[in-house]
Design goal:
24% of the residues lie in helices and 33% in strands. By secondary structure, the chain is of the alpha+beta class. A hairpin with a 4-residue loop joins strand 3 (38-42) and strand 4.
Length: 135
């Protein structure tokens, strides 16, 4: 059965540094689709982040590339299997040079935190109680 994938394309100032950052979070790099201008970060079987040099990113758009340290161009949200896994990923991001945001969202049945990667892209990490979703 076909499973649709998502490829999140993000401009980065330093492909090598971004590659190191995401491998420190526990993700793998697909070398088949990676080179000096791009890192293909495998987040899951259906989610891939393409970290592109700004020059390579510009090949795919006629729009101005947002300065993600000053503007929010996208909010990327990843699910986590538990509250502890939310904290673990955000703490790994901070240890790898990212910025953990202080805004914890705790609604009992849903728990989330966020971090900014080396380029200022915002990543949210959320756990939701499966029993609350089945409602």
């Amino acid at each position: 059965m076909y499973q649709q994938m998502i490829f999140v394309n993000l401009a980065t100032a330093d492909v090598a540094a971004s590659r190191k950052f995401f491998t420190e979070l526990g993700y793998t790099i697909n070398p088949q689709f990676s080179d000096d201008n791009c890192s293909c970060v495998v987040i899951s079987d259906t989610i891939v982040a393409m970290l592109l040099s700004k020059q390579r990113y510009a090949d795919f758009t006629k729009k101005e590339i947002a300065d993600s340290t000053k503007t929010s161009e996208v909010l990327i949200c990843l699910s986590a299997e538990s509250r502890e896994k939310v904290d673990e990923l955000v703490e790994k991001a901070a240890a790898a040079g990212g910025t953990a945001n202080d805004d914890v969202q705790d609604q009992g049945f849903m728990y989330g935190r966020s971090f900014d990667d080396l380029d200022g892209h915002s990543w949210e990490v959320v756990w939701m109680d499966p029993a609350a979703v089945q409602g």
